[in-house]
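dumping the sequnces here before i forget
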Amino acid sequence: MTAATVGTAQPAVTPAAARTAPSRGPGRSDLGIALLFILPALVGFCVFYLYPTIRGIYFSLTRYNILGRPHFIGLGNYTKLFNDALFWNAMKVTLEYVVLNIFFQTILAVAIGVLMQRLTKNTAVRAVILLPFLISNVIAALVWFLMLDFQVGIVNELLANLGLDRITFFGGDATAIPTIAAVNVWRHMGYTALLVFAGLQTIPDYVYEAAAVDGSTEWRSFWRITLPLLRPILALVLVITVTGSFQIFDTVNVTTRGGPGNASRVIQYYIVQKGFAEGQFGYASAISFVLFVILAIVALVQLRLLNAGESDLA
Amino acid sequence: MATTIAPAPTATAARDAAPRGRKPFSPGRALAWAVMIIIILVTLFPFYWMLRTSFSTSKALFLQPGSLGPVDATLGAYKRVLGLSTTAEAQAQGGSGASVDFFLYLRNSTIFAVVATAGQVFFSALAAYAFARLRWPGRDIVFFAFLTALMVPPIFTALPNFILIKNLGLLGTFPGLIAPYFFMTPFAIFFLRQFFLGINREVEEAAKLDGAGHLTMFFRIVLPMSWAPITTLSILTVINMWNEYLWPLLVGTNEQTRVLNVALGVFRSQTPQTGPDWAGLMAAVLIAALPLLIVFLFFAKRIVNSIGFSGSK
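..and the predicted 3d for all of it:
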């Protein structure tokens, strides 16, 4: 139903009817047609986002074997979780992964982004840099699983040829998480570099030219100009990459499966294990709610700390 | 570290004259290029390694793991993972002999990615239009609610959504696999809303004077005008769907709905007694990666340029 028909249906309200025609008055509403446009998305939002969010919180307060019905147990799952050594181990392992992953990924991405900006704006170079992002986490994991294999992996062949010891990359207690982090740095650094590169385009050339005229070196310009002006972009990039990083799952699931021991039993792997392998849906929901809260806090704190949105250029 | 362009006016003038800001040679720039080339090599080498291994014979690989080219070159691995060789043949070449059919998984991934993308982009475009161009009470609140959905980690909604799909009896079916992605994603709506906001009002007013309603306006004017961002969004969505893993792992539980990523994980766990079938695995990996790499070949420029913050300003 269009606004014009509403107007003619209510001839008594003459000023409103007069306003509806071609010009857009402030009080005019397209509610009818808007509902039609938004209906499919609204249904999708309610059924697959809103309802499961509420339901997930409820599940986290129940004992729910996947075959039975949920029984309300209050905060039982949360007290259980507090005393669950494997949960704390999962938190520790995940945090270790996030720190390694984000630290190296961000440094490499900024380096690549700046290199591209100063060396070449060629699209082909950017396309090549983005290639690993086009293959899935699963594929990236499997290729590196081969390349880092203890016996046939080319990396270990190289180490052996150099007279060094072979490394049990995925199979070692101390190396599993750094290896998984490295694989994901490989897959994501190009994408993140392109985000940084896009951010760098917002810094006008004249800033660099002025610095060069004043005798600043590239190195100094990077620290004094690029990095400070990049801060708001970097904040957004970090929010995206850190929250994504906490949800590491694919790589673990096709390579180490949480092992050796619990060395790579990251939080999302633990949730899936509890929920789907052991059928403890209530408990799995409680852990994922904790993850949800952590991610929300991390995002807010990051945006605060890095003052996203306030550019020094403005 | 790197020394820069001399501040002399001649140098600047020369640089302005050069077509693409060509800068004079310096040791710093040479070093920078060297680093860049190393990064590109590290990026590309695993792709070469997939190729090299996929054309090898698995059993021979164990004897010459360091060979830079294919070992005992053969197409056997591809035949094996596409279900074109007999069990005996497969086992002779180091395969597990379990039946695998990557043609089927390729089909499944295609259905999943294409149908989910089509629905998601279309319905998100409709909603984005309502958020960008229509006036209705509660619009901004609903939009904000949609955006907050971005904050919810997928695993959190995956658990209840799994229960829902299970109770509807849709486990192991395409509707169950596709439904959560079919109607909207907050990102798609956000992305398109930004674009629709920028469309000139005068175009709309002119159409309205001609008596066009909002439906006509959307299909006849706004959609055709938005061809570029819709294509970009569709490509990005297909990439995301193709690479999706957790949800298909939970819901695509049978052969008929198993997508490539899930199949790769299964294949990797079917290790033959003689040792992993690396050639088969890499052939499967390439089959899984190839469609997107081909898409990328055609749309590289568009995809590369779409990555940035144009959507968030």
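Chain B touches chain A through 102 residues (CB under 8 Å).
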